[in-house]
Specification:
This protein is mainly beta and 590 residues long.
């Protein structure tokens, strides 16, 4: 037989006819079901004729319990002499657990806590928290979400997503969940309940609409006034409908200030406009007091329009260019520039006139117009500005004179040419940068051409005016530059004669060092007379560190050296010019 005792509702006791050996089967050998649902077994113990199964959660009064045993291959239930208990299918278990069932009493929402619904039971509840989905709260027949659940003594405390207000009709229902139902510490489970009325003790006066006005100082703001101070809860702009002269006027923003609702309109109201306002209470963030009293919807109400009649001020306009009595040469292109503003509106356009003849107009800044090809004569220029209400202002007139064109002699451009470092001699294969300085006293330079004698070698149209000579053969070259200005006039620079010499050619066999090896005192002899300028003698150790550098004197074929202070080792003597090495010779210092 098997039973669950009231004192140990989490333990199932199985009794056998014989005393059992202390051999404990695995929990998987047993199957316990409570109300046809498997209940996990935490542990197994064997003592005398009894097998004790500890359940993962307690059995409560009224639960229907069964147990089955499948003899395992290892550690089956057995006597000390080896007699093994047989498997058996589900057997009814005597449920001796007795527990009183908590009974629902009532529910209330207190005025001090309008977001909390308190359910009261007749017994103290265990601190076992059902999921929020076990509760269904409806406010005025609309579901109100439950944010959290708490247990306190005989009460289940439901926190609502938003507060209940005065006059709301509230119901609550509870569906007993399979996990963590409302229960006593003894395991008595509260039954499900259908929708029950909740006592709403929230007291809150409802704010009543009084009037609306648009003040002269703030023609874009409509002020609604209520009889009570409003909470800073901002409805959506769609909750308000403003009409001006029977046409909808958009609401840009809403603000709350004391008893007032301030609506900013998309454009201002003016004198004589007929304005109405309606408010439709939204489901989210309605107008309300801090106690939750919600303002009712209102149909279109007349708004007092205190905007006074305003006289439109004319725009301001002046011609800023050209100045009075300025002179041009025919045919002239005259650019007329105006400055325009409106003290109480905006500029819609600026028109330009010669006398009564309209030349052109501009509707946006800059207010500028170019009158092209103006013939000889005297002209009276004006600008007319129009504002957004079509008020016009004519500028002061500006007289301009266009004279007969006079012939002007175009001045020649100025040009000079230089070479890299202002040098006149270069080596074969050396890159030579030719640079021209060009300008025009009465115009601009359009291009610079480079010539070698009569042969054009390059053309440059933008700064810097330079060209690189490369791969030039030995010889003498006459370099010039010709500059052309914007009117086609040309001028030629002075000639620069440059000479390109052959590369230094000193084969290593034409250099002799003796004695070699030496003690640091030695002589270098040039066996041929080389042809080059700016040549140097450089001596480095085998690691490339320089120990000597001096100018090569080409008219002295013998040159003495003293490197006695240098460390013994192998050294390299090089004859160089620029970045090129033309001859080398190794020697050894002892």
């Amino acid at each position: 037989r098997a039973s669950v005792e009231n004192a140990t509702p989490s333990r199932l006791d199985m009794t056998y006819s014989l005393s059992l050996a202390n051999i404990v089967p695995a929990t998987s050998a047993f199957t316990v079901k409570v109300n046809s649902v498997t209940r996990s077994i935490s542990s197994v113990a064997v003592l005398g004729t009894k097998v004790y199964l500890t359940l993962a959660s307690p059995v409560v009064s009224g639960d229907v319990v069964t147990v089955a045993y499948t003899k395992p291959s290892s550690n089956p239930l057995q006597t000390s002499s080896g007699g093994q208990a047989a498997s058996f299918t589900a057997q009814n278990v005597t449920n001796n657990v007795t527990a009183a069932i908590p009974v629902y009493v009532s529910s209330v929402i207190a005025n001090a806590t309008p977001s909390r619904l308190e359910m009261t039971y007749n017994l103290t509840l265990a601190n076992v928290i059902p999921a929020t989905s076990a509760f269904a709260v409806r406010v005025n027949s609309t579901t109100r979400a439950v944010s959290s659940v708490a247990i306190s003594g005989t009460k289940a405390l439901l926190t609502l997503a938003s507060p209940v207000v005065f006059g709301d009709v509230v119901t609550v229902a509870y569906t007993k969940p399979s996990t963590n139902p409302l229960q006593t510490s003894a395991g008595g489970l509260a039954a499900s309940i259908t929708a029950q009325n909740v006592t709403n003790n929230v007291t809150a006066a409802i704010p009543v609409y009084v009037s609306s006005v648009i003040a002269n100082a703030t023609p874009s703001r409509l002020e609604m006034t209520y009889n009570l101070t409003l909470a800073n809860v901002i409805p959506a702009i769609s909750a308000f409908a403003v009409r001006v002269n029977s046409t909808t006027r958009a609401v840009s923003s809403v603000a709350i200030s004391g008893t007032k609702v301030l609506l900013t309109l998309a454009s201002p109201v003016v004198f004589g406009d007929v304005v109405t306002l309606a408010y439709t209470k939204p489901s989210t963030n309605p107008l309300q007091t801090s106690q939750g009293g919600q303002a009712a919807s209102i149909t279109a109400q007349t708004v007092i329009n205190n905007c006074s009649l305003v006289t439109n001020l004319p725009p301001l306009v002046t011609i800023t260019s050209p100045t009075k009595s300025i002179t041009f040469s025919a045919p002239a292109d005259i650019t007329i520039e105006a400055s325009a503003s409106d003290p109480d509106g905006s500029i819609s356009k600026v028109e330009f006139f010669n006398g009564s003849t309209k030349l052109g107009e501009r509707t946006a800044t800059p207010y500028s117009f170019t009158w092209k090809g103006v013939a000889e004569g005297t002209y009276l220029l004006t600008a007319v500005a129009s504002d957004n209400l079509n008020s016009k202002t004519v500028s002061a007139a500006v007289t301009v004179i266009v004279e007969k064109s006079s012939t002007t002699v175009n001045q020649l451009p100025v040009v000079s040419v230089t070479t890299t470092g202002n040098r006149k001699k270069f080596k074969k294969n050396e890159k030579i940068i030719i640079t021209a300085e060009a300008s025009d006293p009465d115009g601009t330079v359009s291009k610079v051409e480079f010539y070698n004698g009569a042969l054009k070698i390059a053309e440059v149209t933008t700064l810097p005016y330079s060209y690189t000579l490369e791969d030039m053969e030995e010889g003498t070259y006459e370099i010039t530059a010709i500059a052309t200005d914007n009117l086609g006039a040309t001028n030629k620079s002075a000639i620069i004669a440059i000479t390109i010499d052959a590369l230094i050619d000193i084969p290593s066999e034409n250099i002799k060092i003796y004695p070699n090896p030496n003690d640091g005192h030695f002589t270098m002899e040039l066996l041929t007379s080389p042809k080059f300028d700016n040549a140097y003698i450089t001596i480095t150790n085998i690691s490339g560190e320089r120990v000597y550098r001096g100018v090569l004197t080409t008219d002295q074929p013998l040159e003495e050296f003293n490197l006695s202070g240098s460390a013994p080792g192998t050294y390299v003597l090089m004859v160089t010019s620029g970045n090129s090495v033309f001859a080398t010779k190794k020697f050894i210092k002892r």
